[in-house]
Amino acid sequence: MGLSSRKGIYIPFPQAVPCSYILNMEDCLGNNPIACGKCLEVCEKEAVNYDDQDEIVTREVGVIIVAIGLAVYDPTEMDEYGYTRFSNVITSIEFERLICAGGPTAGNFVRPSDRQPPKRIGFIQCVGSRNPKIGRPYCSNICCMNTIKDTLLLADHYPDVENVVFYQDIRAFGKSFEDMFQRSKEAGTRYIRGLPGDIEEDPQTGNLIVTVENTTSGGMERYELDMLVLSVGVEPPEDLAKISSMLTLTKTSDGFFMESHPKLKPVDAPTRGVYFAGFCEAPKDIKDSVCQAGAAASRGGALLNAGQIQIEAITSRIDEAACKKCGLCAAVCPYAAIIWKKGEAATVIEAACAGCGSCGAACPFGAITMRHFTDDQLIAQVRATLAENPQDKVFVFACSWCSYAGGDMAGISRIQYPSTNRVVRTMCSARVSEEMVLEAFRCGAPVVLVSGCHYADCHYINANRQTVVRVQRLWDKLEKAGVRPERLQLEWISAAEGQKFAQVMWRLEELRKAVTMEEIEQAREALKRKPKKVARQKTAAAAAG
Amino acid sequence: MAADRTKGEIRVGVFVCDCGLNIAGAVDCTAVSEYAKRLPDVVCVVQNKYTCADPGQNEIKDAIRQHHLNRVVIGSCTPRQHEPTFRQCVREAGLNPYLMEMANLREHCSWVHPGDREGATNKAKDLVASAVARARFLEPQEELTVAVSRAALVIGGGVAGIEAALELADAGHKVVLVEKEPSIGGTMAQLDKTYPTMDCSI
């Protein structure tokens, strides 16, 4: 806010941990005796190091607790509130600095334009929250109570100030929250139900003119205020995407981390051994963050105490006798868990294999068995599902982590869609081989969907890139066989996207209805498995003919 | 011993769960059970009120013993919820847990097709048929046990990260706390007073 200055070497705040000085490298002039170097001169312990560098530290751990917090909404885009135009419009986080004894004004609450104590202070709620127009439909959870707290602080420090709070709903649902809300009202704070449409500044005084429709009384009201605090919402921290891809985590539609189960596993990440604590999982206040942190520590501690973990028996096995030593499997393994040298049969490092099944789908010679997700098992499912009236069914391959879970989410949320779809679960969409898809068409499926995690969110590093490669190859094959490629669909649906899962099923049902019996029969014939020799003879015959 | 049961004849038991009215409310579970009886290698079909409850699990265990089942198909909820439950259940009856397969009749069927009893029932039949077809090819598997490194990493030194790190450390675990800022404290440290106690944030 430009209210005070900071030196090039400073302690972040009085209670900082560790309580040591840091150099602001943007302002520091460095160890140059002509320019500066003063801090080095006075530091008896010689702790100043101008050339300190980042370093990579490696530690082996058994559990990870993700507690990366939040980011605060920047209200610049909501120009109607004048945050960038009027100096006396501040955010709630700036308010904290102004009221804090350790802040730039030593806790003397003044307004930025003239550094005078304001007498009439307004608060606008839900700035960046519960606002689908700006892509923030969720409630930030903490802003109502934070504003109530701010009004009580002001009333306590400056009994003659007038506080006005503009709100759409006050959510004071926690233990002793309602009591605080009542105390705020008793202290004289006025609560006006309605969010201002427009703010103007009186250029002479720097005061702010707020026009608002009071939805309780139904009338338009006008307030002249000395200062306006935007009660800004919160959003996922900027590092969330980075951590998410590092640990193969999933996000909800609000952008916060998705837990394993909304009720039964609220602190577990879908990746085993990873737990969430605090805001990064969903907006929550300090008490709830502390509760969740305790739960995460308890869950992680149980795993550490057990000292071992069972790995699901879904890993890849290579039949050395059947292996033709081509190396395709090693090339598609995201974990480098397959060892292959030219001229040698490939082998799997079981402890490194995560069981995505991409190698199984890639092997043209049937030399790879994906335990518990074998070709035989999956092909049997395709055939059994489409044994009767296949023309009435949309056949779906869904990956366990995201798309299948997205289907579960649709169920939990009771989002309805046509009952024509039939889902077969694989661990990863990369497990789906070309043969499985072709078999579905041979069995008479009008429409086949291959669905996986969003491209960057694959739970097997990047195995779903192979899904794309295979589906594209299949589209080519279908086209060449005279089958409409649209009949094979590819979709990315996350575990949180129950709504999207349902939408996709509605869309595919429309697509299914448009597929004629003739088309289904044509595809059955055109995609028929042909013994290679016969095919060659036919080609030769055709060429001769 | 578990592996022996998979040799020779395949004997599938199918258990169709009403889940109270969660499944039976939208799906004709009796029709699904009747249909399952005609599926290949199915030697026993049981309809349960609540398969995951003790009486339901006991019925599975009894049927495994009585009918010498070597494959089990449970038409109930998502495997993402109860697969561990039912794997443990069949294990207790002497069957390798990987010889159990689930058909998702709840999240993927009854809960999403409440107004379409015929469609939902047809779908449930197909889901059970698919699970039975798969079950006939299931093989016993042994899980690999891997040691867990006895240390924890906490990413983020805000109030949640600090609390989690302290809890783990108090329980005797080695903890590495990673924070990108020069001081721990996170967003909470930027606040003056905090609700509902109105005391300092740090």
Characterization of this structure:
The complex is a heterodimer of chains A (545) and B (202). The longest helix of chain A has 21 residues, at 286-306. With 545 residues, chain A is of the alpha/beta class. Chain A is built from 15 helices and 23 strands. The model of chain A has no long low-confidence stretch (mean pLDDT 93). In chain A, strands 5-12-6-7-8 form a five-stranded parallel β-sheet. In chain A, 30% of the residues lie in helices and 17% in strands. The radius of gyration of chain A is 31 Å and the shape is globular. In chain A, a hairpin with a 7-residue loop joins strand 17 (338-339) and strand 18. By secondary structure, chain B is an alpha/beta fold. Chain B has helices at residues 29-37, 54-66, 79-92, 106-110, 117-135, 159-170, and strands spanning 12-17, 42-48, 71-76, 100-104, 144-147, 151-155, 174-178, 193-194, 199-200. Chain B has a four-stranded parallel β-sheet with strand order 2-1-3-4, with helices on both faces. A two-stranded parallel sheet of chain B has the order 6-7. In chain B, helix 1 (29-37) packs parallel to helix 5 and helix 2 (54-66) crosses helix 3 (79-92). The longest helix of chain B has 19 residues, at 117-135. Chain B is elongated and about 70 Å long. The termini of chain B are far apart. The interface between A and B is large, with 111 and 82 residues. Strand 3 (63-66) of chain A pairs parallel with strand 6 (151-155) of chain B.
